[in-house]
Structures are given as C-alpha cells and as structure tokens.
UniProtKB/TrEMBL annotation:
This is Coronin. Pfam families: DUF1899, WD40, WD40_4. Residues 410-487 are annotated as: Disordered. Residues 419-428, 441-454 have a biased composition (Basic and acidic residues). GO terms for molecular function: actin filament binding.
C-alpha cells in the first residue's frame, strides 16, 4: 500500500538528530571569485574530497574545471591554473573514492578523461590526461565510480548507452568499454549504486526508474508509475530501498520511496512544493539522514529514514537567501568530528561567484568524540580489484572509524544482509576469552535465529602478518590487544574496568537485538495468521 502525504508535519518523534542545524562558513572560509559554469545541465557541478575541491568553470573554447586545495579559502585568483584538456564543455566531474589525487571528467566532446592531480595542487594548466575513454557517439553527461572495486568507472551519454570501463590497462586511449548497456530509451538523468555495487539504479528522461545488474547489464526492475515522474534516484544504503525526486501528476515537486525488489508502486510519496527546480537528494547511510536540496533554492530539507512505516520522518529545514546551482559533498572521513559535524555541503552560489561550505552539526555540549553519531563508515580503500569484480565477486566497502588516531584496517561485508554490529560483537567476543559465557551463548542463539531467516554471510577481518598484535573491531573503532600482560597494578585495574564496560555495552546491544528479533517473529506470525484467515 502506498503512503502519500502532503508537506504538513506530524507530531514530534524522538531522535538524536532532531536538533541538527546548518552552520554556513564565514566569508573568509568560503571560496570567492570562482567563475562557476553557466551550464543548464542538472548535475552537481562540484566534487570534494579531504584534500581538494573541484568545480566546473565557465570558459571559452573548450571545457575546463578548477581544482583548489581544500584549505585555499578566500579570494581565488582569476588566473588560477585549470584542468583544461576537453574540446567541449565539461558536464560532470567525480573524484576517485580510493585516490584523492585522481579525478574523472566527461564532456560534450564525447570523451571521459582521467586526470592525475599533483600532490601540491594544480600549479600550471593541465591539458594531458592519464587516460582517455572513447566509446560514446554523443556527449557524455554522467560518470560514476564503482563504490568498492578499484579502477572501474561507469559513464552514460546522450547516445542512451551506459558504458563500463576498466582503467588498469596499459593503453592511454581506451576505445572499447568492458560492456555497453542498452536498456534506456532516452537520456539517463542520474545513476546510483547500492552499497556493494551489485545493483545500479538509473532515472531516465522517459520518467522511469530502472534497476539492473551493472556487471551483465541485465534489467531487473523498471517502474511504470504514472503518478510520479522521476528525475533523480538514489539507493538508500542497506535499507533495500530507493529514493527518487521528481514531479507529481499535478507538477508538484515530489519525493518517493520504492522497494528495490518491487518498483510497481512507491511505498511512500510526499509533495513538497510547486517550484520548478530539480531536487538533489543526498543520503548518509551512517545516520540514516536524507537531505533534499533544490536547484535554485536556498533551503535544504532534511529527514530521517527508518525501515518501518511511515519510513520518512521530517526533521527540519535549513534556510538561506543564497540560491544554490550545484552542490558538492565532503566524504565522511573529511569531517570535523570534534565539532560533531555529520555532513558538509559545498554550495555553488552563481550570483556571487561563491562556494559556501555548509556544515550540518549535532549540538552536543561535550567536546570529546561522540561514538553514537559516528559509526564505522566507508573508507578510501577498495575492497577488490577490477578483475575480481569482473569475475563475479561482490564485496561491501572497507570500513573505518572516524575516531582520531584509529586506522583503516577492517573488512565488513555490508551488502550481504548481516548487521555489522553482529559481526563486530562476534569477532570481539572471540578475540577476548574473558567475555562471559552468557554473552557467547546469547550470540550463538541469535546467530541461530538469523540463520533460519537468511543465508549465512561472512565477516572478513583483515590481518597484518607483520604485526605482533591482534586487530579487532570494538565499539566502532579499531584497537590492539598486545600479548604482553599489564605490568603494574594500576594498568591491571584499568584493563579490568575497561573490560567490564565493554561487557556491559555488549549485553545492552544483545538485549536490544533480542527485543528486535521477538518483534520480527511476532510480525511474521501475524502475517501468517492473516494469510491463513484469507
């Protein structure tokens, strides 16, 4: 059954993100004097990583984009060197998620180009790319890196083709893609991968959403809904749901939620307003927060997404008089965790030639690291090679802790359907023989219940053979337990208190999951009873 709502707000619900607020950067911390492109293409036009910010610029006689150091705030030199190797306007740019010095661009000249950015930034114009991908017959409008496989990139253009490219080949000019996917009847408007990259969702100018296997090109799902005309689409992490923005039958701007296994009708839809600008959706899988920013608007709405009805819970809205033309988003590993920053936008304000950083902050009094709002997040290490992905392997991202000083050292199979917290608890309990038998028995019982409902999945922790210590995931961070015993009574006492606290926390988590299992079992029983009555 579809849930449809107008934009009036229901009663409050308890949430740690209820009071999240947007904090724009001061003038000296903005990027001023940036000649932002006047292109009408509905892309983000900006891409960010912890080292650089790149933005498509206006230029004559070809296409170019600007790459600035993330700390290069203030007035930008109008003659700042650019990346300018395209013969037509640049339409999209994306940083490699596994290499902060590698960026891809696509253009009206029908090519995709891969660029290497020097460690100290762009000091002179860059005109020669590392790789040039030639395969499209018309201009290329979108590019997207695979989220977990190294050296795999997808492109789509006005020839209606989605092309898959492998970059770790000796040729500088690549003319033949790995695969060309022909399932669209019009221009593709957006692309989005699920967490492990085993599914690719697209929205198309024919107003349909399609989900297909990116490796084989097999079409798995397609919408045929007349009440929602999709423009942008987004996978919502591991919730097995899709979020689309577009227009309703009465041309109101609308968001809709879909079950990725059944695109016949949206599970939820909500009309927002009667404006005409495209709605850009951004989703944070760590906090389950959804941000909706309209092109030409100054405001950003944000919501919390839950797996149960009514799915979408409105939080509040950031308002500004400065309209955004495009938006860049900082990866989670580049956020300021000391100020409880959970998301950061880079707003392109064309009327002022300005890029304005906007931090979304959870108000907390304590200045210490807030474990509950920074769970393990996707890092900057690929979980497999291009050949492994081509061979049929799917892996979740390599996870990292945002705690200052922690290391990126653990594989967690997020896309496999197993709760990462379960994996952390299980591995942690096995690595520490001092945990109580009660916890181990309840873990085993919980794993047995999980096996009844879903196939077994695997946790693949990384091990460092050169290290003498054992690395394990604990409480959202990576610790090391050395073999040497505590040398003093004080150290022994501290270790005892630490273990007691960890046991208490694990018991609490297990109790919560036991309650959740009982709820699910009750729901299954109710469904079976209702089916039997029919």
């Amino acid at each position: 059954m579809t849930i449809t709502k107008m934009s009036w707000r229901p009663q409050y619900r308890s949430s740690k993100y209820r009071h999240v607020f947007g904090k724009p950067a001061t003038k000296e911390n903005c990027y001023d004097g940036v000649p932002i492109t006047r292109s009408v293409h509905d892309n983000h036009l900006c891409t960010v990583n912890p080292r650089f910010i790149a933005v498509i610029t206006e230029c004559a006689g070809g296409g170019a984009f600007l790459v600035l150091s993330i700390n290069h705030t203030g007035k930008v030199d109008p003659h700042h060197p650019r990346v300018s190797g395209h013969r037509g306007n640049v339409l999209d740019i994306k940083w490699n998620p596994f290499n902060d010095f590698c960026i891809a661009s696509c253009s009206e000249d029908t090519t995709v180009k891969i660029w290497d950015i020097p460690e100290h930034g762009v000091l002179k114009n860059i005109t020669v790319p590392r790789k040039e991908l030639q395969g499209h017959s018309r201009r290329v409008g979108l590019i997207e890196w695979h989220p977990t496989a190294n050296n795999i990139i997808f492109s789509t253009g006005y020839d209606y083709q989605v092309m898959v490219w492998k970059l770790d080949v000796p040729e500088q000019v690549i003319k033949n893609p790995l695969r060309s996917i022909s399932v669209h009847s019009d221009v593709v408007l957006s692309m989005s991968f699920n967490t492990d990259g085993s599914r690719l969702a697209t929205s198309c100018k024919d107003k349909k959403i399609r989900v297909f296997d990116p490796r084989t090109g097999t079409l798995l799902q397609e919408t045929n809904c007349k009440s929602h005309k999709a423009n942008k689409v987004l996978f919502l992490g591991n919730l097995k749901m899709l979020l689309s923005t577009g227009n309703s039958r009465w041309n109101h701007r609308q968001i809709a939620l879909w079950d990725q296994e059944d695109l016949s009708q949206p599970s939820y839809s909500e009309d927002l307003d009667g404006s005409s600008g495209v709605l850009f959706p951004f989703y944070d899988p760590d906090t389950h927060m959804l941000y909706i920013a309209g092109k030409g608007d100054g405001n950003i709405r944000y919501y919390e997404i839950s797996p149960e009805k009514p799915y979408v819970h409105y939080l509040t809205e950031y308002r500004s008089f400065l309209p955004q033309k495009g938006m860049g988003v900082m990866p989670k590993r580049g956020l300021d965790v000391c100020s409880c920053e959970i998301f950061r936008f880079y707003k392109l304000v064309t009327i002022k030639s300005l890029i304005e950083p906007l931090s979304m902050i959870v108000p907390r009094r304590s200045e210490s690291y807030q474990e509950d709002i920074y769970p393990m997040t996707a890092g900057n290490k690929p979980s497999m090679t291009a050949d492994e992905w081509i061979g049929g392997l799917d892996k979740g991202p390599v996870m990292m802790s945002l705690r200052p000083g922690s290391k990126l050292d653990s594989y967690v199979e997020l896309g496999s359907g197993k709760d990462p917290t379960d994996s952390m608890e299980t591995q942690h309990s096995r690595s520490r023989p001092g945990l109580s038998l009660l916890i181990q028995e309840r873990l085993d019982a919980k794993e047995g219940n999980a096996r009844k409902e879903s196939p077994p999945t695997s946790l693949l922790p990384s091990t460092d053979e050169k290290s003498s210590s054992t690395t394990y995931v604990s409480n959202g961070q990576l610790d090391s337990m050395h073999c040497s015993p505590p040398k003093t009574e004080n150290e022994l006492r501290q270790m005892f208190y630490k273990q007691q606290e960890e046991i208490r926390r694990l018991k609490e988590q297990l109790n919560q999951k036991d309650v959740r299992i009982k709820q699910l079992e009750l729901e299954i029983k109710n469904v079976r009873n209702s089916q039997a009555n029919l």
